[in-house]
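Q: Sequence in, structure out?
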Amino acid sequence: MTEQQGSIEFSGLRCRPLESDDADMVCSHRHAMFLEAGGDPEQLGVMTEHFRQWLQTRLEDGRYYGFVLLDGHQAVAAVGLMTLDWPPHPLHPTLDQRGYVLNVFVEPLYRRRGLARALMQAADAEFARRGITFAILHATKAGRPVYEQIGWSGTSEMAKAVFRDAHPAPAAV
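A: Exactly. Output:
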């Protein structure tokens, strides 16, 4: 990657920061990413509409940031970033924030060219610029090998969906 007038040139593509009018592109990429990972199209449609509202506010106020790779005017790859409020932790004992990488997506015709790696390098540089020394992401099965090759490792994190009224609240004592 080489710097050129506020953007970065990579393999004939231009990399620029995400802008507030990139919401449709980010939503489209996110929808495609989850669909490729086996998501239910109907559920993804609902998720995407709710995500669009959530995203637009955060793109405008800067809480959601990141980069897009452009081939001419066509967005061919992107990465989303956030700074999470997080208590100091053994992996970042003096910091109360960590970075979060999400919505890494490369259009199918542009894959296997190192674009995800390039976006992740841009993410690392942006986190470093913001003083963030630890970051997390949730990898799809397809993305995991890419992240492992550039130094990411699995953690002990677990997840659970919590449903209202699934378990009665404990009785007051």
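The first strand starts at residue 2 and ends at 4.
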